[in-house]
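REQUEST ID: PR-0412
SUBMITTED BY: lab tech R.K.
PRIORITY: routine
TASK: structure prediction, single protein chain
INPUT:
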Amino acid sequence: PHILASLGQPADPSVATAAGVVGALDAALGGLQDKTILVHGVGKVGEATALMLRDGGARVLAMDVVPELVTKLAAAGVEDVSSHPAWWTLEADAVAPCSGPYIFTEDVVKEMQQPLIVGATNLPFASEKAYTECINRGILFVPEGISSAGAVIEDSVEFFAPTEFVNSNPLELYAFARRCCFDQTEILLDSIGSTRDTIAAIESRVKEYHASDEKPLGLRYPEFRDDL
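STATUS: complete
OUTPUT:
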């Protein structure tokens, strides 16, 4: 009862995280239909992200250092680009990093052909200079504090609405994570202005939250589930 990790429940935190990534991408792209999205890393979160994006009508490119992971997805209509020598030069509407940290170096960002970064990777930038280069090139980054929050949102429901959590179909919880990340991405994009410094914007948003009487997301879930 003191561990929030969906233990013993059918809801999968990895799928909840993927749902949040997809919600953030949906908001940032203005829809998924006919968009091309590169998923970098297709482990548990990346695989679920790729399949949700496919179901949303996107063309999905995927890569991973483990060939078997992408081969499995290729049979489901996802394109394997793992053999490409420089994935960051592939033309796509967005890249969804779902792999290890520090993948966006300054040199990578200088050559990037994807104008949007939205994913589950924690600490995706290798340095502050790499992030600055991202801003200078006009590449939009949705911080992982928003886009990868799906599992934490699920934890919030488990803590603040335990009865509803236990009685929910996992798809209801995933839908809630997707909606929350979609909404917060829209709020972020409305607040960044011309600087496109999304990290500064989200830091400001966190301070505003702590100074407000805004309810934790988990408390909002019962009403969301009733309306779903």
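NOTES: The mean pLDDT is 95.
REVIEWED BY: pending
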